[in-house]
Amino acid sequence: MNPAVLVRKLGLALLAPLIAVVAAMIVTSGVLVVAGASIGDFWSVIFSAPSGRNWTNIVNQSSMIFLAALAASIGFRMNLFNIGIEGQYTLASYTAALVAGLALFPGKLNVLAALLIAMGVGGVWAGIAGILKVTRGVSEVISTIMLNAIAGGIVGYLISNYGEQFGQGRRTTPIPEGSSFDGWALFGDNSGEVWSLVLLAVLAGVGVSFLINRTRFGFDLRATGLNEDAAVASGVNVKKMVVVSMLLSGGIAGLIWMPALFNGADYYGPPFQRLLGFTGIAVALLGRNRPIGIFFGAVLFAWLSEQANPLSLIADISPSVVQITQGVVVLTVVIAYEVVRRWSASAEQRSLRNAEAST
Amino acid sequence: MSGNGIEVRGVTKRFPGVVANADVNITIRPATVHALIGENGAGKSTLMKILYGVQRPDEGTISIDGKPVSFSSPTDAIRAGIGMVFQHFMLADNLTVLENVVLGAERLYGIGDRAREEIERISDTYGFALEPDTLVEELGVGERQRVEILKVLYRGAQIIILDEPTAVLVPQEVDSLFANLRELRSSGHTLLFISHKLDEVLAIADDITVMRRGRTVGEADPATTTKRALAELMVGSELPSPQTEESTVTDTVLLSLVDVNLVDLRGRHLLRDINVSIHRGEILGIAGVEGNGQAELVESIMGMRKATGSITLAGQSLAEWGTRERREAGIGFIPEDRHRHGLLLDAPLWENRMLGHQTRAPSSRNGLIDQGATKADTERIVRDYDVRTPSVGTRARALSGGNQQKLIVGREMSGDPILLIASHPTRGVDVGAQAAIWDHIKRARREGLAVLLISADLDELIGLSDRIDVILRGELVGEFDPQDVTPQQLGTAMTGGRESA
Fold first, then answer.
1. Facing residues of B276 across strands?
2. What is the pLDDT of residues B398-431, one digit of tens each?
3. Domain A65-184+192-344 class?
4. Are B78 and B181 within one domain?
5. Distance CA A307, CA A295 (A)
6. Peptide bond connecting A271 to the previous residue in cis, omega within 30 degrees of 0
7. Does B118 share its domain with B171?
8. By a Cβ cutoff of 8 Å, what residues of chain A touch chain B?
9. Is the pLDDT score of A359 beyond 50?
């Protein structure tokens, strides 16, 4: 591929998200005006240089959002809407924390066991929806939403009946000291630690990217997503693919909260961070289901959420306003991608005419 | 009656990067059947859309009855007395003829008795033989087409554009359509008949205009011109023929179907007691009106549907095998609907090369995609099968139908197939690609492949096949020798007129 083509492709890839971000800024500003807040204050807080502690939080949050979006993207690549990431990682996080708390294995082996269990539980929970879909034709959208509710109920029941008392609430037994990581103080002293298991997100990203783009399984998965009928005619067993990708999607979902667990959270209890599953769906859309795109989307979302924290203090604006920004980004990016897609399609048509004319 | 003539002068229409119509000039005399012919992609559809107000020309004028007109929507065109009969019917199956006709035109004659009277009047005047209260789902293809024509007449059309109206009809139905068209002409209607079937054009048209590469390149008088002359105008070269050479049929049975049945959920037989075999080096043609089990037959052989009975390929039972194993065993498959079953439109050509071959070299090795080898092999297909594309990285969607089809044929002929299933292999491709595809099928036969050819083009079937079976309502109802069968005889068998020859 020659450099000019590469630059154009890169430009096209960046154009849509850029349009989306700009549109989101305009809409957010509009909302601020209506609410009578200061636009200047808002954006200066959002775009102020993050402190070391802010940076740490952005990186840590990004890793969880990234894993959640990665999980969603696997399903999306074959038109499978796994809306149940929330339930999958809730159940997986609880189970993994419970098992790690039992300290069945010594030291870091305990972490590995917990990670495997988290992936297993997440996978099975998503797999239920997959099996319902291929055997009974139940839409995975409906079943995964239902499974979210059930997962929440089960975890709530178990924790309140079998969890140990801790302050006002209940929690799982904290993991043994030898099973947690220290993290790295990348952004200076007293700025908190970047979680060691952020690497897990990097690994998962590379792994999924390789699986989807370089393996036969990935080709079958993408083919199914692009044109299911053609995939069937080419010999893809779509039922098997549905179940396997749900297992995979759920398995990745199971990992979402693991970086937090082994870097200070220590137990499953009231501080557990919810709603990452839904954030992940939005970020997967924003990143076009590509690991690289998802990475930038996750950082953007983490940045916005983190930088919004001091809003009420400094500018007397509710931090929730950034949720509007986040929502609008996702909406506009869908439109912007389509516009750019049409534009590049007609560019391709043009180059085709040229090729035909010259033969 | 005069005054329904159309004058098209210097019409030009550009789309991003392509000129679809360039300086198009047509004079359509009132109360005539005017045929517009040309290959796919010659610009007929664009001109049609301009005449029907779907698109506006960038340059040029259109006048009706000497008065310049300008349409910004089909509503304007209908108001000016232009009606359009699309190739794909736009009818609601679960509504009656009356309801379908009235839908969207309720203001003309209401929805009750006045509308019914008007429909009956039109039907009687032109010999349509349609009952207002029949459900459309009970009608055959020819009758549905008459409903479409009735729809435009009901809306007061004096000028009717018919887009490839015979594409979906068997020869007998074509005859009755032509009888209807002659009635319409003698009552003063002007008809623009778009087609690329030259026999039909010569049979019905009063005037002929030929388009090529977006331009009107010539006019012909059907009384004096020949098919050959028309074809040469259309393509600028000689008309290819699908004639096969001497027989290469052997006695080795390659594919054999015994008592194959396929029943749908409601217990209806989609395929009933199919017994057929194809030998190495033989082309078996299947003739039939679309929807009589051809697709089901193909999908059963491919393992996409689970039929009962036995299917064996080179002595090996396929019963336990899925589609993938069957393809790996050497079945090449050119699907009837290439967009639906044959391509990933938004994927590059080289990825499309892998489709159906993803488990084999050069596509993959040890479960990993071999990009380098696949791209190299795609280059080979592009070269050998004359696929016009800037690169193998171009998305399949950007290619014309003919080039997409050539890629599919090239792909399916790769990987040493022993059986080639070709469903409507030349549908919607231009004459040049058609000739190339015929050559490839003939070559497959020479190389000892067994070929199952399904086609709606009876000339193609007769020209290529060693044997023709007729399929009707899921049953094979007669076998013909292509040496001495006419399209009319096949047409009779296809519609259940008379069994076997």
1. B257
2. 887 788 999 999 999 998 899 999 999 987 777 7
3. mainly alpha
4. yes
5. 18
6. no
7. yes
8. 1, 213-220, 222-223, 226-227, 229-237, 345-356, 359
9. no
Are residues B333 and A233, on separate chains, in Cβ contact within 8 Å? yes
In a domain, residue B1? The reply is no
Is residue B455 situated within a structural domain? yes
| Position B501 confidence tier, pLDDT thresholds 50, 70, 90 | very low
Instruction: Please tell me whether the interface predicted TM-score (ipTM) of this complex is above 0.90.
Output: no
The verdict on B59 and B139 lying in the same domain is: yes
Are the Cβ atoms of A235 and B341 closer than 8 angstroms? no
Pick from A346, A283, A330: which is nearest to A69 by CA?
A: A283
Contacts of A152-157 with CB under 8 Å at 24 or more apart are A152/A87, A152/A90, A154/A91, A155/A90, A155/A91, A155/A94, A155/A268
Of B388, B410, B432, which residue constitutes the final position of a domain? Answer: B410
Neighbours of B475 (CB within 10 A): 16
Domain boundary among B410, B427, B459: B410
Of B17, B341, B357, the CB nearest to A349: B17
B333: chain A residues, CB-CB within 8 Å: 233
Mean pLDDT of B135-156: 88
- Cβ atoms of B323 and B356 closer than 8 Å: no
Q: Which of B18, B367, B393 sits opposite A353 (nearest CB)?
A: B18
- Measured in angstroms, the CA of B206 and the nearest CA of chain A are apart by 35
B36 and B90 co-located in one domain: yes
Distances (CA, A) of B36 to A13, B15, B210: 43, 21, 6
Other C-beta atoms closer than 10 Å to the C-beta of A253 total 37
Q: Which domain holds residue B379?
A: 334-410
CATH code of the domain covering residue B480 = 3.40.50.300
**Is the model's pLDDT at B7 over the cut of 70?**
yes
Nearest chain A residue to B370 by CA: give it. Answer: A214
Nearest C-alpha of chain A: how many angstroms from B245?
Answer: 31
- What are B's interface residues with A at a Cβ cutoff of 8 A? 16-18, 302, 304, 322-328, 333, 335, 340-347, 351, 354-359, 363-364, 367-369, 388-390, 393-395, 397-399
Maximal C-alpha separation, chain B: 75
Tell me the pLDDT tens digit for each residue of B87-96. Answer: 778 888 889 9
Are residues B326 and B338 located together in one domain of the fold?
Answer: no
Our CA-based measurement puts residue B355 at a distance from the nearest CA of chain A, in whole angstroms, of: 6
User: What count of Cα atoms within 13 Å lies in the side-chain half-sphere of residue A27?
Assistant: 18
Convert B11-70 into a string of H (helix), E (strand) and C (coil): EEEEECCEEEEEEEEEEECCCCEEEEECCCCCCHHHHHHHHCCCCCCCEEEEEECCEEEC
Q: Which residue of B has its CA nearest to A211?
A: B368
Tell me how far apart the alpha carbons of residues A234 and B359 are, in angstroms, rounded to a whole number. Answer: 10
The pLDDT of residue B4 is above 80:
no
Asked, for residue B438, whether it belongs to a domain, the answer is yes
Asked if B290 and B220 sit in the same domain, the reply is no
Q: What are A277-301's pLDDT values in tens digits?
A: 999 999 999 998 999 999 999 999 9
pLDDT of residue B215: 85
Total number of domains constituting chain B? 3
Is residue B172 domain-shared with residue B284, that is, in the same domain?
Answer: no
A349 to chain B: nearest residue by CA?
B398
Distance from CA of A234 to the nearest CA of B (A): 4
In the prediction, which pLDDT does A354 show?
Answer: 66
Nearest CA in chain B to A217: B367
Residues of chain A found within 8 Å of residue B351, distances taken between Cβ atoms: 219
- Is B139:B98 a contact under the CB 8 Å cutoff? no
Task: Return the H-helix or E-strand segment holding B197.
Answer: none
| Closest CA relative to residue A216, chosen from B308, B324, B366 | B366
Identify the bridge partners of residue B271 per DSSP, sorted by sequence position: B262
